[in-house]
Design a protein that fits this description.
Elements (H helix, E strand, L loop, with lengths): L16 H34 L3 H17 L1 H11 L1 H19 L5 H16 L1 H12 L2 H12 L1 H20 L1 H22 L12 H9 L14 H5 L2 H30 L5 H28 L4 H21 L3 H29 L5 H29 L5 H18 L5 H10 L1
């Protein structure tokens, strides 16, 4: 099967420089999910070896999220100031070193410090990667590019379980982190040597690629290099609209990821083995939904926000059916359908963002937006846990909480203005 992308009829097929860049970004994102998610599998073994109770083990998870969330916005600043290439390479190398160091830690205070510093390295990467995508991909392909990148949201957690379990079973938890720190150094080198901040400087870029970017007024290719002050970025209404949408969407995403496996065990009474399989299947549907959403995002750009609204509402409807249906197996079916439409909507969201925010401020802007998503991760899991606890173990109110958040994200999406008008506002700033 050929790996070469389809181009316009009558022109030769070529592997474009932007596809190499996207491949490197995808590998880096996959590694970032592996490096963070193996902790959930390793934690019981770490707790046993370091004599930690569950509260202390929870602090190890929190240390990462604090560092990760805290560096979303600074990471965006650095990407806009020094270039996405350097920030991605440094960030990947940074978190890879602290991934390996995790395997050498023998005390809780040092573990908390290492995981916090690990989170800082990962925190500066997302906004830089989105800036790089928006720089190299023309508007007509950004939906698919970000959708391909976003498949790691579903594939990463599933792969992490397999990798961690295999290495722990053979060599112990220390080796998991030591081994996973090594690939990142090679990926960081690949990012540094095979990407450039300005497409004009890339040795493999073609004139056709540059013409595509210049034709749509790319603020990197054009001579419009005047910096935009951060206070002007903050004045863009669309920035706060997108942050609010992502915050509300991620409330549902984190709840979906965190509590549904427990729901299958405690309410649907699945065995642990069956839960492991059934909890993974919806994420496979989610990966398919992400790719479909990316295709439709580019194909139907004017209708994107309405497609987000439609698919978010459908996903919310199937989430409702998940906890109200009598059959446990049908609950999994509805969960899979919900995941398909939910991740379809996610691809629509990133397509809207990539076409709404100019490349020159993508680092700062996407950092703010993703910070909203991380705050959702901070509040979603404990609120749902409290709802389940106060309702005597019933998950109904927790599901309603997720459903309301997802529908609310659809309502906010309806207020987003046309991408071109927002670009004009930013460019004139």
């Amino acid at each position: 099967m050929s790996l070469q992308p389809h181009l316009t009829s009558g022109k030769p097929k070529t592997w474009k420089a932007r596809y190499t860049i996207l491949s490197l970004i995808w590998l880096a994102w996959l590694l970032s999910f592996l490096d963070r998610m193996v902790m959930s599998v390793s934690l019981p073994f770490i707790g046993r070896d370091l004599n930690l109770d569950t509260t202390q083990q929870g602090l190890i998870i929190s240390a990462f999220f604090i560092g990760y969330a805290a560096f979303q916005i600074p990471g965006g600043f650095l990407a806009d100031r020094f270039g996405a290439r350097k920030i991605m390479a440094i960030g990947i190398a940074w978190w890879s070193v602290f991934t390996s160091l995790t395997g050498a830690v023998l005390t809780l205070p040092l573990m908390l410090a290492v995981r916090f510093l690990f989170g800082i390295g990962e925190g500066c990467f997302p906004s830089a990667s989105w800036k790089m995508i928006s720089t190299y991909f023309p508007s007509k392909e950004r939906g698919r590019a970000t959708a391909i990148q976003s498949t790691v949201n579903t594939l990463g957690p599933a792969l992490a379980v397999v990798v961690a379990a295999s290495i722990i079973g053979a060599f112990g938890w220390h080796m998991v982190f030591i081994v996973l720190g090594l690939p990142g150094l090679f990926i960081a080198a690949g990012i540094y040597f095979f990407t450039r901040d300005n497409p004009k400087d890339h040795p493999s870029i073609t004139q056709q690629d540059l013409d595509e970017l210049a034709a749509e007024g790319s603020d990197v290719i054009s001579q419009n290099t005047a910096p935009i002050p951060f206070k002007e970025v903050l004045k863009m209404p669309v920035l706060w609209q997108m942050a609010a949408i992502w915050f509300l969407f991620d409330i549902t995403f984190w709840g979906f990821s965190t509590w549904l496996p427990s729901y299958l065990i405690t309410v649907r009474e699945f065995s642990l083995a069956k839960t492991g399989v059934m909890a993974a299947i919806p994420f496979l549907f989610g990966a398919g939904g992400t790719l479909l959403g990316g295709y439709f995002s580019d194909k139907f750009k004017p209708q994107r926000k309405f497609l987000y609204v439609l698919t978010a509402v459908i996903a919310a409807g199937f989430l409702y059916m998940t906890f109200t249906v009598v059959s446990a197996d049908m609950a999994v079916v509805y969960q899979c359908i919900s995941a398909l439409f939910m991740f379809f909507a996610m691809a629509m969201f990133w397509g809207i963002l990539m076409d709404t925010i100019p490349s020159k401020i993508m680092g700062r802007a996407s950092g703010i937006v993703n910070f909203g998503g991380q705050m959702a991760g901070v509040v979603s899991a404990p609120i749902m846990g409290w709802l389940i606890h106060t309702s005597g173990g019933s998950y109904n109110s927790a599901f309603i909480f997720m459903i309301v958040a997802l529908i609310a994200s659809a309502v906010v999406t309806l207020t987003v203005n046309n991408a071109h008008s927002n670009k004009a506002i930013a460019t004139e700033a």
